[in-house]
Structure formats: C-alpha cells, structure tokens
Design a protein that fits this description.
CATH topology of the largest domain: Aminopeptidase
Largest sheet: 6 strands, mixed
Number of domains: 2
Number of helices: 14
CATH superfamily of the largest domain: Zn peptidases
Distance between the termini: 30 Å
Number of strands: 21
Strand order of the largest sheet: 1-2-6-3-7-19
Length: 460
C-alpha cells in the first residue's frame, strides 16, 4: 500500500465529515437559492484547506443571478512545464422534492454503515470530494503534485450549464489544460467502473396552452376546450408507443456509430433482469435484444415527458376546467444533433399538426460529445482504474448529459468520466446515497491518474 493509499484509508472519517458539510448546504440551482453562494464559498474553503489555491470567478457582480465558478489550481514544483489535468465538477444539486418520500432529511448527510445519504451525496458532491482529497493527500505526503492541476466547479449543471460557455470563453486561458476528468463515473452491479468517453446531448422545453382568463366550472367543458386536453393531443403527435420520435427530419443529423465504437459496445454489459428488478419494472423496450439495448443506451435518441401540470391535483376531486396547462419535455440527443435546430423542428411539427396556439419555450440545450475510443488519455484512465478495481468497462458514451461538448470545442481537450457513482445510487430521486467504499477506491484511482499523467509525454 502506497503512502497515498494509506492516507485515504486512515482519513476516511474526515473525508466523510467534509462531504456531510457539503450535503448540508441545499444548493438547488433550479430554485436559484442564495445557499448556492454559501456552497460555493464552502467548496472554496475546503479546497484552500487542502492546499489548493482557490478563487470564485464570476461573469458579473450579480451573483444571485449567475452562480460563480469555483476555480482551483496547484502548480507542480517538480514538473511545472509538464501537462495539466482539469477536474470538472459542480456544486449545485437537484431539488429534493418529493420530500415526503425521503426516509430522513434530504440535506442531513446521514451516515448509515457504508452509505452516506442526502441530495448531492453522489451527484456531484461525493464525486467532487474524491478529487479534492486525492490532491490534498499528494500535497500532504510529498509537498507536491506530479502534474499541474486545475479545478472548474460550476453551480448550474443541474439546470443545463446555461452560462458555462460564457465562462469557458471568458476564462479560456485560465482553464487551459491537456485533458479533463469529468464530473462522475458509474460503478456497475459487478463492482466494475464504467469509463465514459462521451455524453448525450439534451434539449429541454416547455409546452403551454391556455383557454380562458381564469379557471372555469367543469360544466362549461361542453363549450370550452380544456387546455390540458390540448397539451395531451399535442404530446401524442411527438412520438409513438415504441419510443420512435415522429417529428419530421428529427433523425437527419444523427451520426452513425463508427466501427470501433460498435466493437466497444459489444464488450459493454447490460443486465436486463437486474435492471428490471432494481426499478420494479415488468418490461422494458427491446428486452429481447440485448445488443440493441446496449446501442440505444449509449446512442439512442429520446423524447421524455418530465412533468405535466394543469388544474387541481390535490386530494379528492374538484370539478374545474383549468385555464392553463403545461408540459415539460426533455429530448436526449446524439452527435451531430444541434439543440436549437431540433427545437425549430419541434416548433414546425406543432405548427404543421394544428398546434400553432401551443406556446413552445426553450429552456436549455447541450450538444452531444464523444472522443475517439483509442484516445491516449482514455487508455491511461483505463489502466489506472484496472489497477484499483481489477475489471473495467469502457463505454463510448454515458446515457446521461453534461456540457462536455463545450470543453471539447472551446478548450480542445479530451474529457473522460471516471468516478464513484454506484449505478443504482438513486441520483435525482429520494434517498440518494453514495457508498463509502467506492469513495475510497475512487480517491485512490484519481491519485493514480494524477501520478501517471505526470509521467505522460505524448499529446492526446
């Protein structure tokens, strides 16, 4: 056991305590809470205590509107002209609702055996703490780091990273690097880390319909069209029962898998029965074709209804004809689909199908990104993960979405995901948790990546 590994083992209680501190600050970006700034300051404080030079970066003076980025940097004394690795993470979290479905306070950071519970425990505060502590352990054991290190920790990832492109452009020189470790990485049910070489894109929208200037008595439904039905009929034209999106030209820009990507997908794993059992499902799409499932998981396009609202939704009944109705949708995109172009196709689809009166609102969008399967940085991470975990799964893309495309496009660097997020850790759901044993393994793995990257000479 190396000195770094030994320190990870002996310092786990302090690591867990600092993660609890982060969880206890409800940094919900969707609600634009002032505690976002409190959390940014706490992250900066923890980094400074670790020996990482830290500062808050902002686009303007109104921090209530645009949360700051927490920037950190450690310059290698022994290898100052060597390569630079950037850690991208975020300190904002999803809303905790529905609160009543949590077993404990969602911002308690409760520890129960091998688990730490709370909103953000895994996404993304648990992942963030593994990066900070890995750097801290190097500094405490050796007084130096093997390569130059930078941190970019944003506060809007959970609402589409709406200002990240501006931040990356304004502070491009400060963020310049040779490679980026992404905010998270999954560990599957067989304890294998899943190394992700890309992410799907995303388009988030709202549909709004209105009939009257106030809610009406439901007896008037013989005369007045219900906006909820209007929304339902509009939604029904967007995709069929198999999940195929029926918007004209929606798939035109989809990039086919490259031969080496298809070969990589063959070696990925998807346990259909375990997936169904974990989520209490009786069936899933294409469950008789495991190969198709694997291709769709990393490269399939989706149209998802993430929220519906209209009228009275509390206990009991209320005979009301609502005046308004709204639906929230998210569409997963793949290379080379552009969110704004897909948004326009959706608008044209609604217009051409008799729904010009339905308002369509653009919420956020991010293009998809994938790096080559044989990228050298990806190989380095695979080697380090194999040493720590024994077995590794390499995925051409995460099924989820993040702003990876901006890093690849603006900073011109490869991004690879590796982390401690257990596949069924209930991210974005009640009773989210992180496993302490995976935090320890990932912290050691990040330390190994830093050490090996310091030896790396070839350009990526």
């Amino acid at each position: 056991m190396t000195k770094i590994e030994s320190r990870v083992e002996s310092d786990i209680d302090k690591l867990a305590s600092q993660l609890q501190q982060l969880i206890r600050v409800p940094s919900v970006s969707a609600k634009k809470e002032l505690t976002l700034i409190k959390c940014a300051n706490l992250v900066s404080e923890l980094m400074s205590k670790a020996g990482i030079k830290s500062e808050l970066l902002k686009l303007d003076d109104n921090l209530e509107q645009i949360p700051p980025i927490v920037y950190g940097e450690v310059k290698s004394k022994g290898n100052p002209n060597g390569k630079t690795i950037l850690f991208y993470n975020h300190y904002d979290v999803q809303p905790a609702e529905q609160i009543e479905l949590w077993d404990d306070d969602p911002f308690s950071g409760k520890i129960d055996g091998n688990f730490i519970f709370g909103r953000g425990s895994t996404d993304d505060k648990g992942e963030l703490i593994t990066r900070i502590k890995a750097v801290e352990y190097f500094l405490k054991e050796t007084g130096d780091v093997p390569c130059n290190i930078k941190f970019l920790i944003e506060g809007e990832e959970e609402i589409g990273s709406s200002h990240l492109e501006e931040y990356l452009t304004k502070y491009r020189e400060k963020f310049s690097c040779d490679a980026t470790i992404w905010e998270f990485g999954y560990v599957d049910e067989q304890e294998r880390p899943i190394i992700s070489l890309g992410m799907k894109g995303l388009l988030c929208v709202e549909l709004h319909a209105k009939c009257s200037n106030a809610d009406l008595h439901s007896s008037l439904a013989v005369l007045v069209e219900n906006p909820a039905w209007r929304i339902v009929h509009a939604l029904n034209t967007i995709r069929d029962e198999s999940g195929l999106i029926t918007i004209k030209n929606w798939y035109n820009e989809v990039r086919d898998f490259l031969p080496e990507e298809l070969e990589c997908i063959k070696h990925e794993d998807f346990d259909i029965s375990d997936f169904k059992k974990t989520y209490g499902l009786s069936k899933i799409y294409n469950e008789n074709d495991n190969e198709l499932i694997k291709r769709e998981y990393v490269g399939g396009v989706t149209a998802n209804i993430s929220g519906l609202f209209s009228g009275y939704i509390r206990e009991g009944s209320k005979t009301v004809l609502p005046s308004k109705a709204m639906a929230k949708l998210d569409f997963r995109l793949v290379p080379d689909m552009i969110p704004k172009k897909q948004f326009q196709l959706l608008r044209e689809h609604l217009d051409n199908n008799g729904f010009k009166d339905v308002q369509l609102k653009y919420l956020s969008g991010e293009p998809a990104c994938r790096i080559p399967v044989n990228n050298e940085f990806g190989k380095l991470i695979e080697m380090c993960a194999r040493e720590e975990y024994g077995k590794v799964i390499k995925s051409v893309s995460s099924a989820g979405t993040g702003p990876m495309w901006y890093f690849n496009e603006i900073l011109k660097c490869p991004c690879v995901g590796i982390g401690c997020t257990y596949k069924y850790s209930r991210m974005h759901s009640p009773n989210e948790f992180v496993r302490i044993d995976l935090i320890k393994k990932t912290t050691k793995c990040i330390g190994s990546i830093i050490e090996e990257f310091g030896k790396s000479k070839d350009k990526n």
